[in-house]
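User: Please fill in residues for this 138-position structure.
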């Protein structure tokens, strides 16, 4: 496990395949070897060592994570009817990056940006960071 892998962003937990209102924002952080997710109300969805996370990235760029025996479908952006991230989630994200260097490297491709708002790049970044942190993701 590489505990110095750091990433944080607001992603969307697709709690329902069909109901866009149930595709909710979560603040997901990877820091010091731990993966944490908090919902809009600040409640912890999960907090586990990265090495206990399994998952895969689908062809449609959904990151399917298994944490503590439960599966979470994570996507890079919500639907048009999904709730927006809360002010607390945005504030916590800003505070997270206030004393850390943001990740560097490639950005989203042109087509991903135009047609998908960079969502595919977003979930690929999470898959890659989790793999570097010791999670069993592919």
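Assistant: Residues filled in for all 138 positions:
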């Amino acid at each position: 496990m590489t505990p110095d892998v750091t990433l944080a962003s607001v992603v969307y937990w697709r709690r329902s395949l069909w109901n866009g209102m149930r595709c909710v924002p979560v603040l997901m952080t990877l820091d010091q070897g731990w993966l944490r997710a908090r919902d809009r109300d600040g409640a912890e969805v999960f907090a586990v060592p990265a090495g206990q996370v399994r998952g895969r990235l689908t062809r449609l760029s959904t990151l399917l994570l298994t944490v503590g025996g439960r599966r979470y479908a994570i996507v890079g952006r919500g639907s048009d009817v999904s709730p927006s991230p809360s002010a607390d989630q945005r504030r916590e994200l800003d505070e997270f990056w206030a004393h850390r260097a943001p990740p560097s490297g490639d950005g989203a491709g042109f087509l991903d940006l135009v047609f998908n708002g960079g969502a595919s790049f977003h979930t690929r970044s999470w898959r890659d960071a989790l793999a570097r942190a010791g999670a069993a993701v592919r």
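For context: The longest strand covers residues 23-31.
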